[in-house]
């Protein structure tokens, strides 16, 4: 069978890709895919890449030169892929919707942690500090959640919020009908919501969707959640909004400059990203490093669908999960 060059490989990826492997030869590389590392794919008909790998025009040319015929992204979001540049040269596949629950549940975990200050309470009790001062939260029951993007994950998150007894407003250019949820404009959502959660893809149009103007439209004391893509938020504008108290707390699983940092242990080095250092210094910011997808169910499904995509491609059958230029 064909050989796959597997970039940004982590032990949790290998576990399921090895277990479900129908017979491909896999060359695992710990480094990310870039113009410089594309040469490692020499002789491999397929490349398997992830969210912080770069699949731009240069990388695509380099992969074609090495004989690669398909890039199988093992993720849903494909903002790091230049589908235009790949057209007619290289097939592109991805894994849409492997477990919307994994991401939606992590989003709620971020909100609960922020609101009830679990991260601070955990640190205190480990130090035998049993004081409650400063740990006050609010009831989520009866509050309004604003869900931006009502695709698979946004819908799952909206339903979790409904389960908490929250009102839910949504905005999406192609709105889904979700029982008990009202579709509104982005401006109305920003004005009305006590909690705002981003679940739309990163595109040219949604880049810095939440900028200074957007933050000014929000209620004072809003909770902001982003488990989608970092560049949906202008980080400088978020820092201002946190300093002014406009944003009561931010739960972030993604960061606009995460590439090269997230997924790696950087604990022994100086972090040179000042905006990230500032975010991490705030007690009302909870940041996880792009782990919302990380459940057994999701990892298994990612491996299963990636193999399904590759099997279809190499058998000359139509692939269901093609990444097309222009969305
Ligand atoms: P989906 O494709 O099912 O839904 C996306 C929805 O966003 C669609 O309904 C679309 O119409 C809507 N949308 C597009 N532009 C919009 C805009 N400007 N404003 C409001 N809505 C807009 O995608 P799914 O599976 O729900 O994933 C959403 C995003 O979550 C992905 O694009 C990806 O970036 C992110 N993601 C993050 C993960 C993590 O581990 N943190 C894991 C998986 C996905």
Q: Would you give an account of this structure?
A:
By secondary structure, this protein is of the alpha/beta class. The chain is about 35% helix and about 15% strand. It has eleven helices and twelve strands. The chain has helices at about 10-20, 55-65, 85, 100-115, 120-125, 150-165, 185-190, 210-215, 235-245, 275-280, 295-315, and strands at about 5, 25-30, 45-50, 70-75, 90-95, 145-150, 165-170, 180-185, 195-200, 220-225, 245-250, 285. The strands form two sheets. A seven-stranded parallel beta sheet has the order 8-7-6-9-10-11-12, with helices on both faces. It has a five-stranded parallel beta sheet with strand order 2-1-3-4-5, with helices on one face. About 40% of the residues are buried. The site of 1,4-dihydronicotinamide adenine dinucleotide has 30 residues, from helix 4 and helix 6.
SSE blueprint:
Layout: E1 3-6, H1 11-20, E2 25-28, E3 46-49, H2 57-65, E4 70-73, H3 83-86, E5 91-93, H4 100-116, H5 118-126, E6 144-148, H6 152-163, E7 167-171, E8 181-183, H7 186-192, E9 195-198, H8 212-217, E10 222-226, H9 235-244, E11 247-252, H10 274-281, E12 285-287, H11 296-314
Parallel strand pairs: 1-2, 1-3, 3-4, 4-5, 6-7, 6-9, 7-8, 9-10, 10-11, 11-12
Helix pairs in contact: 1-11, 4-6
The protein binds 1,4-dihydronicotinamide adenine dinucleotide.
Short description:
The chain is built from eleven helices and twelve strands.
